[in-house]
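Structure tokens please, single chain.
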Amino acid sequence: MKALLDTNVIVDALQSCEPWAGDAQAIFRAAANQRFIGCVTAKAIADIHYLTRRCTHSEALARETLGKLFMLFELLDITAMDCRQALASRTVDYEDAIMIETAQRERIDCIVTRNLEDYRHPPIQIRSPAAFLEALNADTGI
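Here you go.
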């Protein structure tokens, strides 16, 4: 199973954001235990670097954090075509539309986000972190 993780899930795990940290950190453990293939977009990595550096005031710590993420998750490029196709998407949030286009091109099984309301009429499964973990633990596949 291959899942694309939204930036909010990664940040929740890294910054222990409550009440979401528990599920996000459980997703990190599941990826580390190779229970699924976790993916993050290159754009999300740039955003995570910015947020980590801003919170820690340390470029070295921000880069160390990215190195750890690269060991846990596959990094997906966003293409020009993903951006162009997202313009015609029924998804209201353009950034989310780009994620959907990238996920479809990469044959991702689902996107994991806590921002479910922005994904209306998606052509791919969208799961909350809790629902993703439930499906993963039930081994029902996604």
